[in-house]
Amino acid sequence: MSALRPSRRTFLAAVVSLGLLGACVSDSTEGGSAGGGNAQGDTIKVGILHSLSGTMAISEVSVRDAELLAIEEINAAGGVLGKQIEPVIEDGASDWPTFAEKADKLINSDKVAATFGGWTSASRKAMLPVFERNESLLYYPVQYEGLEASPYIFYSGATTNQQIIPALDHLKAQGARTLFLVGSDYVFPRTANQIIKAYAGANGMEIVGEEYTPLGNTEYATVVNKLQAAQPDFVFNTLNGDSNVAFFKELSNVGLDSTSMPTLSVSIAEEEIRGIGVDNLEGHLVAWNYYQTTDTPENEKFVAAYKAKYGENRVTADPIEAGYVQVHLWAMAVEKAGSTEVDAVKEASKGLTFDAPEGTVTIDEENQHISKTARIGQVGADGLIEEIAGSDAPIEPDPFLTTYPWAANLSQGNG
Amino acid sequence: MEVWLPQLFAGLGVAAVLLLIALGLTFTFGQMNVINMAHGEFIMAGAYTPYVLQGVMGAGLAGVAFGLALPVAFLVTGMLGLVLERVLIRRLYGRPLDTLLVTWGISLMLQQLARDLFGAPNVQVVAPAWLRGSLDLGPVTLSYARVFTIALVSLIVIAVGIYLTRLAHGRRMRAVMQNRQLAGCSGIDTNRVDQLTFFVGSGLAGVAGVALTLLGPVGPGIGTVYIVDAFLVVIVGGLGQLRGAVIAAVALGLLNSFLEYGSTASLAKVGVFAAIVVFLQFRPQGLVALRTRALT
């Protein structure tokens, strides 16, 4: 550990200066890269590309932290192929063209072996052509809307059949007949809602309302009025970011709680709960594959390590865990392949398993997603999430929903 | 009946928020012609004030801390504005594009500062017990938080109105706005008036920030959420016109909420913007325009 100290300190300094720089000049491409040393021979460079400034920084900074933790663990255990991993951190600045630009910089001027990054689907869609053109690898840590399988992306977050469909199954089992869909106006909620509507049609559920608000919207009085008029059994919430705070404050301000207006959210994890206020969220449902309370020995270790490095106050959450897992998956694949060469890593990744904090995960042979256990959780008074239902075993990823007959006519983006 | 009454109240709620965030700007932008892009970050600084106070005073006094935050935020962001005016903006009067860029840079720096001080995730401000819950009036549910914002903004409007028309300070401020040279010739220290104007305008942003913690997120980036709407209200209302800002905020709030009920939130935003563009074609000076005989 002590051998790591100095590099960690320069690292933090670089991160801070980079954050400041990114905030001031969001287009700077030659920002200080962490580490800085040119010891090409003894280190393997990897890219870390998240929004460290702008509206998405709220979520993505923690994923970066988890990825750095994983790198530190791997380095402490001797690195990969006998070399230390050297992270090169870039700021996507919550701006999708910047993600593409920085991805290009990481691949072509830093010559990274792989990149870990992205959060919103928009940022992934912006980076996808860059990684495909350069035949370089991107590891993407967030649950998303599916209907994609790039040969150059590893998807370590859930696809729809590992999160949204299990959530719908749970609501159906609870006897929900009518759903109201509330979402932010961009690709993930619109595609997710398309899937939800197809599911509802096939399962005798009725969609009594569908509302989209612009990303960052903070005014929910009208939406809540519409909810009260429609009186759905459940609200399916795909809002993202700050909007969730305004939405749940509005619900709670007009006296609606988890019994009078129950909701199920797919973008609210432990980190967001505090910002929204536990009082406003208690009892509401969420769907993920991992919670801080998930009961595995690996998770106990992970939570302890994360808190030790970043502070007792910090919480872990699904995308944070996925960020941590994907670095380990990459390192294992490189070790197995004996090289960082892209095709070799892809080949070595097929069927690779790892005992992750969320349980054992396996990389799918075909679509480079990973199998994950679905978990429905309920927000407790302590601000943590307790699992109340879930799949007994990891669910195989099926990004194109080929095993669901009702999903035959779905295609991306036609909200 | 069933639809329009709740929507009327929702629209007034939106109007109150719009007015709250725009009031400070009617001073700095309207009176002084300073395009202060950091206005949103003053709102953000105001929003963090109850968070800090609640942290210091403990959970038991959350309600007291919230009430205390209103005047404290006024002073804190007022001072922040004063420093900004003294150090930078003073040198840039009459150069609106330069002020725009400089204050935008300041706003980014303040955002990063907040991120370093309080962390990137949103924080929680505990709403005082007396502001939770709602009043049930048949078809309308009036949440206390909304009633509070509407009452607060009404109070501020009245106070600002009295200040501008009845008090010597306020009258000097208007004199400087209407004709800087003549005011200076008449013995008014325009430099001091500018400082005071900037202090009050920035302070009002802080008060807005405290109230907005009841309704929206509290995080480093919230300034960017409100800044555009604030400028819209001031421009539609007419530069520096309190009456104009009030009418503009109510009109935009109602338009927005009724359009949103009939369509979707995204479409309502488009509709409101389109209406503003058309309106400004016919009345570029805004709803209420200052008439002066000055030769400019």
What topology emerges from the helices and strands here?
The complex is a heterodimer of chains A (about 425) and B (about 300).
Chain A (H helix, E strand, L loop, with lengths): L4 H20 L18 E8 L6 H20 L7 E8 L4 H13 L6 E3 L3 H14 L3 E3 L12 E3 L8 H10 L4 E7 L2 H16 L3 E8 L7 H10 L3 E5 L4 H11 L9 E3 L4 H7 L1 H4 L3 E4 L8 H14 L7 H20 L4 H8 L3 E4 L2 E4 L12 E5 L5 E6 L25
Parallel strand pairs in A: 1-2, 1-3, 3-4, 4-5, 6-7, 6-8, 8-9, 9-10
Antiparallel strand pairs in A: 10-13, 11-12, 13-14
Chain B lengths: L3 H28 L7 H19 L4 H26 L8 H23 L15 E4 L2 E4 H23 L1 H11 L1 H6 L4 H23 L9 H16 L4 H21 L2 H18 L14
Antiparallel strand pairs in B: 1-2
Give an account of the 3D structure:
The complex is a heterodimer of chains A (415) and B (296). Chain A contains 13 helices and 14 strands. Chain A starts with a helix and ends in a 25-residue tail after the last strand. Residues 1-39 of chain A have low confidence and may be disordered. In chain A, the strands form three sheets. A seven-stranded mixed beta sheet of chain A has the order 7-6-8-9-10-13-14, with helices on both faces. In chain A, strands 2-1-3-4-5 form a five-stranded parallel beta sheet, with helices on both faces. In chain A, strands 11-12 form a two-stranded antiparallel ribbon. In chain A, helix 3 (96-108) packs parallel to helix 4 (121-134). Chain A is of the alpha/beta class and 415 residues long. Chain B has 296 residues and is mainly α. In chain B, strands 1-2 form a two-stranded antiparallel ribbon. In chain B, a hairpin with a 2-residue loop joins strand 1 (134-137) and strand 2 (140-143). Chain B is globular. Chains A and B meet through helix 1, helix 2, strand 7, helix 7 and helix 8 of A and helix 1, helix 4, helix 5, helix 9 and helix 10 of B.
